[in-house]
Amino acid sequence: MKHVRIEFEGSKYEGILITESPLFIKLKSGYNMGFPDTATIVDTTEINTEKVQPNIKKNDKLPTLNIVHCGGTIASTVDYTTGAVNANITPEQFLGIYPELQQKVNLNLHLMDNIMSENMRLSDYNKLIEIIKNIDGPIVITHGTDTMHYTAAALSFAVRRHEPIVLVGAQRSPDRGSSDAYLNLNAAVTYALNTKDEGVSVCMHDSISDDKAVIITGTHTRKMHSSKRDAFKSVNVRPLAYVKDAIEQIWSRKVKDVRYSSFNETLKITYVYAHPHMHVEEIPSNFDGIVLLGTGLGHMPVSDHKENEGILNKIEEACKNTTIVASTQCISGRTNLNVYTPGRILEKVGILQSPGLLPPDTIFLKLAFCLSNPEFTVNSNIIGELDYPEVIE
Question: Which CATH class is domain 269-378?
Answer without folding.
Answer: alpha beta
